[in-house]
């Protein structure tokens, strides 16, 4: 929730021998790099939950043009809402960076399966409302990266 909380958690983990021995010591040899950023849920989005257990997630990272949400926020929100209105996917959350690469927006979607996501996305691209909203938003876009996430059994979002 805040930086004091983050600091307390990091300090607790640094002093947790079980964490150090069972996780960190096993994970470090597998790590090539680490990227940290702080992102917040955008004010117009509530954190969602998947409609049912199972499924897959799509983590989409948008690098927007400098200027922040004051410049591109309204068009971006309209594009997100157009995708929601198609009904093929469920929005879990939209997050905007505070630290790290600025003007980065992450969107987390839930779908029943990768095939259902692909079919829904294909139909969305043929929906005139989605096409118009994306066309308006893309003028502020620098780049986009999509990642398919399949949750592990230990994930709270499995």
Core attributes:
158 residues, Alpha-Beta Plaits, 2 domains, alpha+beta
Walk me through the structure:
The protein is an alpha+beta fold. It has 2 domains: 1-34, no CATH class; 37-149, Alpha-Beta Plaits (2-Layer Sandwich), CATH 3.30.70. The protein contains 5 helices and 5 strands. The protein has helices at 3-14, 17-27, 69-86, 114-124, 128-138, and strands spanning 38-41, 56-64, 90-99, 104-111, 141-149. Strands 1-3-4-2-5 form a 5-stranded antiparallel sheet. The two termini are 23 Å apart.
What is the overall pLDDT average? 93
Distance between the termini: 23 Å
Proportion in β-strands: 25-35%
Largest sheet: 5 strands, antiparallel
Low-confidence stretches: none
> Could you name the CATH topology of the largest domain?
Alpha-Beta Plaits
**Tally of DSSP β-strands:** 5
Helix content: 25-40%
| Overall morphology | globular
Count of individual domains: 2
Number of helices: 5
Radius of gyration: 18 Å
Which strand order do you get reading across the main beta sheet? 1-3-4-2-5
CATH architecture of the largest domain: 2-Layer Sandwich
Which structural class best describes the helix and strand composition?
A: alpha+beta
CATH class of the largest domain: Alpha Beta
Q: What is the ordering of alpha helices and beta strands?
A: HHEEHEEHHE
């Amino acid at each position: 929730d805040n930086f004091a909380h983050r600091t307390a958690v990091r300090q607790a983990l640094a002093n947790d021998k079980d964490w150090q021995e069972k996780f960190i010591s096993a994970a470090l040899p597998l790590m090539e790099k680490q990227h940290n950023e702080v992102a917040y849920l955008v004010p117009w989005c509530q954190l969602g939950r998947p409609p049912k257990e199972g499924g897959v997630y799509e983590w989409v990272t948008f690098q927007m043009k400098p200027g922040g949400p004051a410049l591109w926020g309204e068009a971006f929100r309209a594009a997100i809402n157009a995708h929601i209105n198609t009904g093929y996917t469920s929005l879990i959350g939209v997050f905007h960076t505070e630290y790290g690469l600025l003007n980065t927006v992450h969107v987390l979607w839930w779908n029943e399966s990768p095939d259902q996501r692909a079919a829904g996305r294909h139909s969305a691209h043929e929906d005139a409302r989605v096409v118009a909203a994306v066309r308006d938003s893309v003028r502020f876009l620098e780049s986009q990266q999509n990642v398919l996430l399949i949750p592990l059994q230990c994930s709270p979002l499995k």
